[in-house]
Amino acid sequence: MSDSVWARGRRHRWLPRVTAVVLLAALVAGFLVVRAERRADHNAAVLARACGGVLPRDVVRDLLSGDVRWELRPGAGPRALAGCTVGGTGEDDARLEFAAVPLADPPLRGVRAEDLARDTPYASAPEWARAHERADAQVTVACPAGLPGHPRPVTGFRVYASLVGGPEAAELAPAVAALANDVRKRNRCGGAPVRPSDARAPAPERGDDGERGEIPAPCRWFGGKTESAAGGEHAWARGCAIGLPATDRHAVSSASWWGDVLPEARTEYGAELAGLGGGAPASATRRSYEVAAWARSRCAQGTTLHRVSVSGLDKTALAARVDALLDRYLAAARGCRDIEVLGKVWA
């Protein structure tokens, strides 16, 4: 019988070759299955460590390809509250980048009213403070209790994320919200939890073709007709510069300071504060006059110093007008009490 089997095998010479191919395919398939299982276990371990293990597993798996080996890399640098990068290491591999950074203004160029109202009141912002502008999704979170480890109180932070090398319409909001809530909890910020719907793409910057007639918020106290208005509100101060119609020939400015910049404002305007209550300048050949009125109050931010000034040609009209403008400005400062008018001074 063995001879007949051997004879049949000799007649079917392809059978050993097919058997070898099948065995080789089985070995390759088994190897691929084992490698895929090991890769899946490795990726799961990476995901369990990424950003403290708070990222939603299903969301990340939907965004990154499971056919590549993921690696975990550091996040946004020493200023970051949290951050990580997870994904493939190849040039064409998708990766997710997350970061949470404190929401702090860069230093002001100056504390004078004209500095606060300018288009670029800050010194150059560091790169880490502008990285969110290129992100796919971000959310700003309040931290009323303040973030620890900062020389000045920081009462907010920003979480942002980007998918590099992946689909443009990726859904990053759940992961951004999860990381934001973890940072909020670890720093005992309090407040309401962050929802995925709170995370959105960064708003595009409005160019010079924006609505020119819009009055900046720090200038809305004025209420009258203006030729121009520029203003800004910052962490420790706000300022406004208003140009009035040509028929009026007056210019108005306002500013308030509190917190850490209050001593700097007192130093910058030391001569004015020391001269409060002085008389009007003598009628000479001056082409323009400026008078400033000062007040002090307690607002939500603490002790606050206020200054309103008006410039023009008529000394008598200026003196009466600055008092009315200060009253209007203080009336618009909601939440302020214990108001003390310090007087006025001619600049």
- Write down how many β-strands occur, each being a DSSP E stretch of 2 or more residues: 11
Q: What is the chain-wise order of helices and strands?
A: HHHEEEHEEHEEEHHEEHE
- The pLDDT mean sits at 81
The structure class reads: alpha+beta
Shape: elongated
- Radius of gyration (Å): 33 Å
The unreliable regions are 206-212
As laid out across the biggest beta sheet, the strand order is 6-7-8-10-9-11
Task: State the major sheet.
Answer: 6 strands, antiparallel
Structural notes for this entry:
By secondary structure, the protein is of the alpha+beta class. 29% of the residues lie in helices and 25% in strands. The chain is built from eight helices and eleven strands. It has helices at 2-11, 14-49, 57-63, 113-117, 173-186, 262-268, 270-274, 315-332, and strands spanning 71-74, 82-87, 95-102, 137-142, 156-164, 228-233, 237-243, 251-258, 289-299, 302-312, 337-346. Strands 6-7-8-10-9-11 form a six-stranded antiparallel beta sheet. It has a five-stranded antiparallel beta sheet with strand order 1-2-3-5-4, with helices on one face. A hairpin with a 3-residue loop joins strand 6 (228-233) and strand 7. The longest helix is centred in the first third of the chain and has 36 residues, at 14-49. The chain is elongated, with a radius of gyration of 33 Å.
